[in-house]
Design brief:
Blueprint (H helix, E strand, L loop, with lengths): L2 H15 L12 E7 L4 E10 L2 E10 L2 H14 L4 H17 L6 H4 L15 H15 L6 E2 L2
Parallel strand pairs: 1-4
Antiparallel strand pairs: 1-2, 2-3
Helix pairs in contact: 1-2, 2-5, 3-5
Length: about 150
């Protein structure tokens, strides 16, 4: 088993079982719901934004280990970032999840690199991208429920 694949499994299990930034955010300036009807993943992303910065981001919900781990990793990385940084990161992560390839350095992606393993399981890509699409919708204060279908 490759080191990256082993790390992928360990991180997914860790973040899936004990997600970081899990729970309601009372100070949220934007709240968005997301749903994956194929897997049954359902989550709510809470975002507190001040100007161009995301001061805090949390999530609630239930779903498979990949969905919960992706949301947990996402909240750790997006906190403190600007809208522009988040939009760029979204594009990079989407490419990573759908193709398994990076267009920026692994240093920029940091711990999100472990999500590259999801590309090997096409049926699970929607599980991993749900939180990202939901966060982007919250970032821009759109109101429609996000669905992977």
């Amino acid at each position: 088993m490759s080191d990256l694949h082993e790390l992928y499994q360990q991180v997914i299990i860790d973040h899936g079982r004990a997600p970081r930034n899990f729970g309601h955010l009372a100070e949220a300036t934007s709240t968005q719901e997301g749903y994956n009807p194929l897997c049954g993943d359902r989550l709510i992303v809470y975002m507190q934004r001040t100007g161009e910065y995301v001061q805090a981001i949390r999530f609630e919900g239930s779903g498979c280990a990949i969905s919960m781990a992706s949301a947990s990793l996402m909240t750790e990385v997006l906190q403190g970032k600007t809208v522009g940084e988040i939009e760029k990161l979204f594009q990079e992560v989407h490419t990573l999840l759908t193709t398994g390839t990076m267009t920026i350095s692994d240093r920029t992606l940091g711990k999100l690199m472990v999500l590259a393993g999801v590309a090997q399981y096409p049926m699970r890509v929607k599980c991993a991208t749900l939180c990202w699409h939901t966060a982007m919708t919250a970032l821009h204060h759109q109101k429609d429920c996000v669905s992977t279908e």
